[in-house]
Amino acid sequence: MCLAVPGRLIEITGDDPLSRVGRADFGGIVKEINLAFAPEAAVGDYVLVHVGFAISVIDGTEARR
Fold first, then answer.
1. Is 46 helix (H, G, I), strand (E, B) or coil?
2. pLDDT of residue 13 exceeding 90
């Protein structure tokens, strides 16, 4: 069983799709995450994060649920 946690992207650095890194806010805790698996992610989006990698972009309603 895997656990993915939703976080909101607050910053993105890097232009190369394989080395893009973002800072995500998890309810007040900010962590650096890899965006290689979610190249469409933009600042303000909610992403599901598993072991430091954003695995998909989700809408805000789903993230809050």
1. strand
2. yes
For residue 30, give Cα distances in angstroms to 1, 9, 53. 24, 9, 14
Residues 6+ apart with CB under 8 A from 18: 36
Given the structure tokens 């890194």, which residue do they identify? 21
**Distance between CA 17 and CA 28 in Å, rounded?**
27
pTM over 0.85: yes
3-class secondary-structure state, position 50: strand
Q: Is 52 left (phi over 0), alpha (psi -120 to 50) or beta?
A: left
Q: Which residues of 20-56 are buried (b: 16+ CB within 10 A; e: fewer)?
A: bebbbeeeeeeeebbbeebeebeeebbbbbeeeebee
